[in-house]
Write a structure and sequence with these properties.
This protein is of the alpha+beta class. 42% of the residues lie in helices and 18% in strands. Strands 1, 2, 3, 4 and 7 form a 5-stranded mixed β-sheet that branches. A 4-stranded antiparallel β-sheet has the order 6-5-8-9, covered by helices on one side. It is extended, with a radius of gyration of 23 Å.
């Protein structure tokens, strides 16, 4: 009995390590809800097989192999198919846009103002008036860009003109145009294409990544191969 349990523990240990390695290493703060649920299911698979005498080592190996294959294929699918990845792992959500709280999105995601303020305080922001942009990440964390006059040290204290950091949104990922990669912020595809052409890109497939900033500038990272610039 003890030998069988030891064998299962060893297999489970290396099996979990292999699954973590092939599906990509992430810190706890980077886990999406899907990653969290997947880890729970995996722990149930291992936990239930360890102390069940009717489940032998071959069953454990088969379960780990199937789960590893499913996790690997799903991870590759979310990487290969950009739009599927946004659906499966979730999109970022713009809760505060240029100082204005998007109450429709807050209601949709069941976020109360006291919760929003609590999340802001973790970013050392203690008033909604200080926030220019607040983005809810897929892992549930909040990213914040302050109003320029509330940055430390403030531009006003230094006698300088206050200028905000640039706020940009992903519009092209792996050659695909994303009309709404961020909930609450729509992008005009025609403007993106126009900026592309200004920079000499006629085919969107030649672009690996592009982000569109609030000042209308398009930052482009071209693909390393099959470039066709005019």
């Amino acid at each position: 009995m003890f030998m069988d349990l030891t064998t299962k523990l060893v297999i489970s240990f290396f099996g979990l390590w292999v699954i973590t390695f092939i599906t990509g290493r992430k810190t706890l703060s980077q886990l999406t809800p899907l990653d969290f649920l997947s880890s729970l299911v995996l722990s149930e698979i291992v936990g239930n097989t360890l102390y069940d005498d009717q489940v032998n080592v071959s069953h454990l190996l088969f379960a780990l192999a199937v789960w590893a294959a499913l996790s690997y294929l799903f991870e590759k699918a979310t990487t290969r198919f950009v739009k599927f990845g946004y659906v499966a792992e979730g999109r970022v959500v713009l809760l505060i846009d240029n100082g204005e709280v998007n109450q429709n999105l807050i209601k949709k995601y069941d976020i109360e103002f006291k919760q929003l303020l609590s999340m802001l305080r973790k970013q050392n922001v203690f008033s909604l008036q200080e926030v220019k942009y607040a983005v809810l990440e897929p892992d549930g964390s909040l990213s914040v860009l302050r109003m320029p006059e509330y940055e430390q040290p403030t531009a006003q204290d230094m006698g300088l003109e206050a200028q905000s950091d640039r706020f940009a949104i992903t519009v092209i990922d792996k050659g695909e145009l994303l009309k709404m990669s961020m909930r609450g912020k729509q992008i005009d595809p025609d403007k993106v294409r126009m900026e592309m052409q200004k920079q000499g890109y006629n085919d969107i497939k030649d672009i690996a990544y592009a982000e569109y900033s609030e000042d209308g500038m398009l930052y482009i990272i071209p693909k390393k191969r099959n470039k066709n610039r005019t």
